[in-house]
Structures are given as structure tokens and as C-alpha cells.
Specification:
Purple Acid Phosphatase, chain A, domain 2; 23% strand; single chain; alpha/beta; 6-stranded mixed β-sheet; disordered N terminus
């Protein structure tokens, strides 16, 4: 389900002056314990491998978006550890929560010189809107009334090209088990988005796999986790053999969204490919 803009090496594109360059990281699943494991792999080690791949890629980035499931045990120590790692980018880093996060704890500990959790950011002719889709005590997502109202207000007072980010997928990605944990009121979100032609992209995490599709003129994008990957188009829970990764996005002044997913060279050691869930 790749859109044409996602098929070319982004570093080879001739990007106009004023392009906003974004690194998306998602589903880090860190723990308070640096030895914490998810499905057999150390998620901190895996994330550090992804960070090294980002540095080797050497594509100039303006900001970093981190799109949920940041700390698997939602611990203050885990968030502080993550904040320290993100500070090392020495770039603005904007975070939103996923279903494994506790937003109140996350917001308390992800605030530093570089790291924060805003709702809107205006940069280089673009508006970025970060939504909280966490539904308490649920793996699936929901946009509360105040989130929907905030989205509507952010679009009503804005004629800038816009990228919306959240954790849960607002459309099915083709895997039955993970699609039982979608955004449960995506129709309300799209009612608002469909009245806002300046929206150029919607970006999310949660599904631990790449997804690229067009919905009219809006790019729909999901990205690999920095740790475990889920097999695409799977009826039941299934771990994928693909390596961890991240997404690069180029948002051009004329409203185009160009992006590319990049993965590390190998899957993490110890990954339990036979797991039936977590």
C-alpha cells in the first residue's frame, strides 16, 4: 500500500528551500529496568541500534516526532531514561502518548531543553497537531471530546499545510488482530479532517509495521517500531522478521509530503518469533 511519494530514497530527492524535515520514532517500549525485554529483546538496546542507524543515515533533520508507546511500564524512571536519550539529538523532540503510556506521568517527565509534549507546533509554513488517543484501560484508542474540539479549533484557525499525528490507526491496516484496536471514533476525526483541505498527512504508530495509503489528498502513514515488528496482513498475532526502523518525512512549502521508512541491518538478538502475544 505504498503511495508514489514513499518509493524513492528521500536523500536523493531535490527538496525546495524551506522544506521541513522530520524524523518519526515510535513504539520504543522502554522499561525502568535497562535490561527490560519485550518478546525476548532488550528494547533499550534495540532503540540504541536505531539511533545509531539514524546517525549513520546523516539526513539533516529539523525536528523529531515520537508517536506513543514510549515506556512499556509507564514508569518515571523509564521516561527519564527516554528523555535523556532524546536530548542527545539536540533538536526539538515532540512526544505524544500511546496505550502503554500514562499521559500524566509522561508529561511530567518528558520536559527538558529539547523534549516536550505540545498539542500544536507551527514551523516553516506547516502546522503539526499532536493528538492524545489513549483510552484508559484499553489497547484501542479514542479521541475524547476535548481532543476533537482541539483538533477542530487548530484547523479552523489555520490555513497552513497540516500534519496530524496520533498513536492509534484511524483506518484498518489489514491485520485482523491489531485492527481490533483501532481508533474507535475515527469517523468523528475524519468529519473534521474532511472539512479541512489543508490537512496533508496523518501519521501514527501502534501497529509496529509500515503502512502507506492515500485517502483523497491526505497521506496516511504508519511506521515500524524501534523494537518488535508485527507481521502485516496477519489474522492472529504474529511477529515479523523485519528489522526495527524509523520514518523520515519531508514536508515541502507547497504542501507535498515525501517520506521513507529506513530499517536497521538486522533483527534484534533474542527475538521470540514464535510468540503468540504479549
Amino acid at each position: 500500500m505504498n503511495s508514489p511519494s514513499n518509493n524513492k530514497n528521500i536523500s536523493e530527492l531535490r527538496l525546495p528551500s524551506g522544506t521541513l524535515r522530520i524524523l518519526q520514532i515510535t513504539d520504543t517500549h522502554l522499561y525502568a529496568d535497562p535490561q527490560g525485554q519485550l518478546l525476548g529483546i532488550n528494547t533499550l538496546d534495540s532503540f540504541q541500534c536505531v539511533i545509531e542507524q539514524i546517525r549513520q543515515n546523516n539526513w539533516p533533520v529539523d525536528i523529531v516526532l515520537v508517536t506513543g508507546d514510549l515506556v512499556h511500564d509507564a514508569s518515571p524512571t523509564g521516561y527519564q531514561q527516554l528523555s535523556d536519550l532524546l536530548d542527545n539529538f539536540e533538536l526539538p523532540v515532540y512526544c505524544l502518548p500511546g496505550n502503554h503510556d500514562v499521559p500524566e506521568i509522561m508529561h511530567e517527565h518528558l520536559k527538558s531543553e529539547f523534549v516536550s509534549c505540545p498539542q500544536t507546533i507551527d514551523l516553516q509554513g506547516w502546522r503539526l497537531i499532536l493528538l492524545n488517543s489513549v483510552k484508559p484501560n484499553s489497547e484501542g484508542g479514542h479521541l475524547a471530546d476535548d481532543e476533537l474540539q482541539g483538533l477542530q479549533q487548530a484547523l479552523a484557525n489555520n490555513d497552513k499545510h497540516t500534519l496530524i499525528s496520533l498513536h492509534h490507526q484511524p483506518v484498518p491496516v489489514g491485520s485482523t488482530w491489531i485492527d481490533s484496536m483501532t481508533l474507535d471514533n475515527a469517523d468523528k476525526m475524519f468529519e473534521i479532517v474532511d472539512q479541512a483541505p489543508q490537512v496533508r498527512g496523518i501519521l501514527w504508530g501502534h501497529v509496529h509495521q509500515q503502512f502507506d495509503q492515500m485517502r483523497g489528498q491526505v497521506h496516511l502513514m504508519a511506521s515500524p517500531s524501534t523494537c518488535v515488528q508485527f507481521a502485516p496482513e496477519s489474522s492472529d498475532f504474529s511477529v515479523d522478521k523485519q528489522a526495527p526502523g524509523f520514518r523520515l518525512l519531508a514536508l515541502t512549502p507547497d504542501g507535498q509530503v515525501r517520506s521513507q521508512v529506513i530499517r536497521t541491518a538486522a533483527i534484534p538478538l533474542g527475538l521470540d518469533l514464535a510468540s503468540s502475544g504479549y
